Amino acid sequence: MVGSAARELLLVIAVAAVGLLLATAVAFASWPVTPGGPAPSGLVELQGPAPTDQVGNASG
Questions:
Q1: Pairwise CA distance, residues 10 & 21, whole Å
Q2: Helix-strand-coil percent breakdown of the chain, rounded to 5?
Q3: What are the residues whose beta carbons fall under 8 Å from the beta carbon of 27, sequence distance 6 or more?
Q4: CB under 8 Å to 40, separation ≥6 — which residues?
Q5: Tens-digit pLDDT profile for residues 7-60
């Protein structure tokens, strides 16, 4: 009984690890570029908001 529970837990961990590897490979893989098509997908660049010239408090 203990052996089957350990085997099942090992299977769940192995499937989760394979899923993480596949997700990482897809996230960082290069996407094919088609002429005249949309830009290829990629990871999003995080940028902060542009500074504003307004002076004052946040309450308006």
A1: 17
A2: 45, 0, 55
A3: 43
A4: 30, 31, 32, 33
A5: 999 999 999 999 999 999 988 887 666 666 666 566 667 677 887 776 666 655
